[in-house]
Structure formats: structure tokens, C-alpha cells
Design goal:
Blueprint: H1 18-21, E1 47-48, E2 55-56, E3 62-67, H2 71-88, E4 91-96, H3 101-110, E5 117-120, H4 123-131, H5 140-149, H6 152-156, E6 159-160, E7 163-164, E8 166-173, E9 176-180, H7 181-187, H8 195-207, E10 213-214, H9 220-235, H10 237-244, H11 253-266, H12 275-280, H13 284-289, E11 302-304, H14 309-313, E12 324-328, E13 339-347, H15 352-361, H16 364-373, H17 391-402, E14 408-409, H18 411-414, H19 417-420, H20 426-436, H21 441-458
Parallel strand pairs: 3-4, 3-5, 10-11, 13-14
Antiparallel strand pairs: 1-2, 5-13, 6-7, 8-13, 9-11, 9-12
Helix pairs in contact: 2-16, 5-15, 7-8, 9-10, 9-11, 9-20, 20-21
Length: 460
């Protein structure tokens, strides 16, 4: 059975971690450095053996790494690259990319200046890079690290036609709702476990004088994440897999049910900060920070997004675990959803230095450095949970590793990028239109199906 992404071939069960989050809000988000004890001698020996992975000496060699990461996420990743430089003697340059990264890479390749390694945020993008002849398989050293440190499921989503092209350096749990603790306290609101309880909680927040939800609608991917959580819980894993592979149409009754459910929040007057127009002008980072600025009178009381929201919360004065708390996305059907995402390192220029970098990124050494800095989650099972800087993050990391292969990958990331990963097009645009007019369920379904059929048919 071939999936649209070309990487996911087996149906995986969904798991929850609601219980694991209980009582995990005790500590604040603090940043601390990594790699302090790793000293590279800088001599001319054949390899550098500091840490758990052996790396070649690469004095005088230079490589470029492209990613769409910005802000603290980019800053922290550069610290990982600096450690690679220290151990190998290579020079690594970070190249800021724009979404969709496949288009960015296409322009770089057409100009004869491709980066050596790219961090691709979708399995579908890895498949496209392979189909276009851009991506190169990872070497034996990186494969050995993957087999040692990753579950089979995380290895498989980096494969195309049985060959390993992607090293998933970063993971995400995209089934979390973060909230302003003081707002909930003032409203007498409780952490919900079901969708109905979420609506009750939202009404309590609204009645206290605070808008319940912040939505980063200017970034269409946040809206696909909302949909995926509702759909996975309500329709179930089997339907989720079918829709992800376009084996059922977006005009299916299950999609109508999920959109109708979403409209209970998106279409409720006063429930979304700034209304639909305001949300569509709010980019993701601001959707998080505006929940945790303004004391107990912020622009909104809660925001849905993944564990990586901690990076943005850290830009405010709020402390994770006291001022900023989190609960698992409530169950809409019989089981609460867990949707995962991630970013994979893919080699575009098959050099010794590029292969050494992806080998390093597949090791616990690299991930442990960034784990200590906060706002990051690794699928690497040999990263010690003690590396994560707060109890919330440690709990999320434990749940990810404990799930093994039992997870569902972000649906839009499995789709051809023209449908699931391009600003102003496909699913992103169609759900932005739906946020603006949540009464038009049938029209939204028709647009989603038209765009999906075109993208899946062309594979672009």
C-alpha cells in the first residue's frame, strides 16, 4: 500500500498521554546550555570521538544548512551546529528559508547554489525532493545512529521506497492547549477532558470578560492542526489514514462532522480574539504571546498548539507550570487525539561533511544540546529526559518515547505540498476561508476536495 507521502505504509494506533500530564506543571521554563563538557582537541587526528558518536575531522570544509526556523528556534539550532563545528573543524552556515521550503530549494538549485542539507517539515516534501532527484540517501553511519536511537516508525517516515533519506531531528506533540492560569482561576474554569467540557470552559472564560481563544489564522498550518485533532478523535484513526492518503474524499460526511464541530468555536461570536478578521491577521507567534501578556486581562485565555509553544511563551514574562499551564487536546470522540509532527534533515549535496552532520543530528549528542535549551522535542529515544528543562517538557518527551510507533503524523504534512504545505493555497487557504465563514461547511468541503484532487493527482 503506497501512501501519498511515500513513507507511511502501516496503520498506526493512536495513543493518549492525558494522564501523564497530570501534575506536571510544577517547574518554570528555564534555558540552560548544552555541550559544555565536550572539548574538541582541534588536532589533525582522523576523527573526533567526543560524545556518543564518532565524527570525522573536517578542517577547512564548509557546508550550508537550510531551514525555515526563526527566532529562538533558529538561535538554539545554531548552538547545535556550533558544537558540530567544534568537534569536526568544519564551518557550517545556517541559511534562512521561506515556506514552502521546496519552492525555496527549487530556486536555489536552479541557481546552482543548493544548500548541503535541508530541514524538511513534511514527509511529502521529502518524497518530492527524492522524486526531483535532489535528495541523497543517508550514509551507513547515519543509518546506524537511526537504528540505535529511533523507533521503527520514526525511521520509516524518513524513508522513500525503502531507502532512508530523512533523519527526523525534531518532533512535536501537536495535541496541546496552553492557557493563562490566572484567567482560568478568575473564571473558575477547569481543565477540560472532552470537547463539551472545552465549550463549558470557554463559556466560563468568556463570562469572566476574557476572550476564550487565540487563533493564529494568518498561518494556515495552525488551522490544519485544529482540524486534524478534531478529525482524528471524532472520525477515528482508520478514517484519518484514509483521508491523509486521499482514499476518501473531503466531501465525506466525516469531514462535514469535523468542520461543523470546529464551527462551534470558530463561529461562536466573541470566542476568537479579534474575531475572524483579527485571527486571520495574527501570525502564530503572536497568537501564543498575546495569551500570556497583559496579566489576567490578556487578549485571550488559551491557545491551541504543540509543545513548541514554550519557545514563544518564554518570550513573555510568563512561567511555564505556574503562569502558563497546559492540557491535552480534549476528546471529541471516544479517545483524545495525539497528532505528531517533525522536521527531518535531508542531504542535498552528498559530501563527507553533509553526511557527518546528519549522522550527528541522528545522535543523542545533538538533540541533548537543544533539549536543554527548551521548546524542543526529540524523537531520539536515547536523549535523557533529564535534559529537558522543566517537568512539563519532560512529561511530553516521556510520552512521545513511550508511544513507540503508536502515533499519527500530521495529516497535512503527509499531503503533496501544493495541498498541505503552501501559504495561500490548498488546505491552508480553504481553512482560512472557513474561519472567515464557518457556516459554509459544504462549500469548504467542495473547495478542499477540488484542491486535494488536483494536488494528489499531480503529486506536487
Amino acid at each position: 500500500m503506497r501512501s501519498i507521502s511515500g513513507t507511511i505504509r502501516t496503520p498506526w494506533a493512536v495513543t493518549t498521554f492525558t494522564g501523564l500530564l497530570a501534575g506536571a506543571m510544577a517547574l518554570s521554563l528555564t534555558a540552560c546550555g548544552g555541550g559544555d563538557n565536550d572539548k574538541s582537541s582541534g588536532d589533525s587526528s582522523a576523527s573526533a570521538t567526543t560524545g556518543t558518536v564518532t565524527l570525522p575531522k573536517l578542517n577547512g570544509q564548509s557546508i550550508e544548512v537550510a531551514a525555515v526556523w526563526t527566532g529562538a528556534e533558529q538561535t538554539n539550532f545554531k548552538k547545535v551546529l556550533a558544537e558540530f563545528e567544534k568537534r569536526t573543524g568544519a564551518k557550517v552556515t545556517f541559511v534562512p528559508a521561506q515556506d514552502p521550503i521546496i519552492n525555496f530549494l527549487g530556486s536555489k538549485i536552479a541557481g546552482g547554489q543548493p544548500p548541503d542539507v535541508a530541514m524538511l517539515p513534511q514527509p511529502g516534501a521529502i518524497k518530492q525532493a527524492v522524486d526531483k532527484g535532489w535528495a541523497k540517501p543517508v550514509g551507513a553511519e547515519a543509518e546506524a545512529q537511526l537504528k540505535k536511537n529511533y523507533s521503527q516508525g520514526w525511521q520509516d517516515i524518513g524513508k522513500v521506497d525503502g531507502k532512508q533519506y530523512g533523519v527526523y531531528y525534531k518532533a512535536a506533540n501537536k495535541s496541546l492547549v496552553w492557557y493563562n492560569a490566572k484567567v482560568f482561576e478568575n473564571a473558575g474554569a477547569k481543565e477540560p477532558k472532552t470537547w463539551q467540557e472545552l465549550l463549558t470552559t470557554a463559556q466560563a472564560v468568556y463570562d469572566s470578560g476574557v476572550t476564550p481563544f487565540s487563533v493564529g489564522g494568518a498561518d494556515g498550518w495552525t488551522l490544519t492542526d485544529w482540524f486534524e485533532n478534531v478529525y482524528l478523535s471524532q472520525a477515528g484513526p482508520e478514517k484519518y489514514d484514509q483521508l491523509a492518503q486521499h482514499k476518501i474524499k473531503w466531501t465525506d460526511p466525516s469531514v462535514k462532522q469535523a468542520l461543523t464541530t470546529l464551527a462551534q468555536i470558530w463561529g461562536k461570536k466573541g470566542y476568537v480574539a479579534g474575531g475572524a478578521d483579527g485571527a486571520l491577521q495574527t501570525e502564530y507567534p503572536a497568537s501564543v504571546t498575546q495569551v500570556f501578556t497583559g496579566g489576567d486581562q490578556p487578549k485571550a485565555g488559551m491557545v491551541y498548539e504543540g509543545d513548541f509553544a514554550q519557545v514563544n511563551i518564554g518570550e513573555t514574562k510568563a512561567k511555564v507550570g505556574s503562569d502558563a499551564k497546559v492540557f491535552a487536546f480534549p476528546s471529541v470522540g471516544s479517545t483524545a487525539p495525539v497528532v505528531s509532527g517533525g522536521d527531518a534533515a535531508v542531504v542535498l549535496k552528498d559530501s563527507k561533511a553533509a553526511q557527518a552532520l546528519v549522522t550527528f543530528l541522528a545522535s543523542p549528542d545533538a538533540a541533548t544540546i537543544q533539549a536543554k535549551l527548551g521548546g524542543y522535542l526529540s524523537p531520539n529515544k536515547n536523549v535523557p529526559t533529564s535534559a529537558y528543562p522543566n517537568e512539563v517538557q519532560r512529561t511530553i518527551a516521556k510520552s512521545l518515547i513511550a508511544s513507540g510507533d503508536d502515533f499519527r503524523f500530521d495529516m497535512s504534512d503527509q499531503a503533496p505540498q501544493a495541498f498541505g504545505g503552501t501559504p495561500g493555497k490548498g488546505e491552508w487557504k480553504d481553512l482560512q476561508d472557513f474561519l472567515k465563514n464557518p457556516t459554509d461547511v459544504a462549500g469548504t468541503q467542495a473547495k478542499l476536495e477540488k484542491d486535494a484532487a488536483a494536488a494528489y493527482g499531480s503529486g506536487s
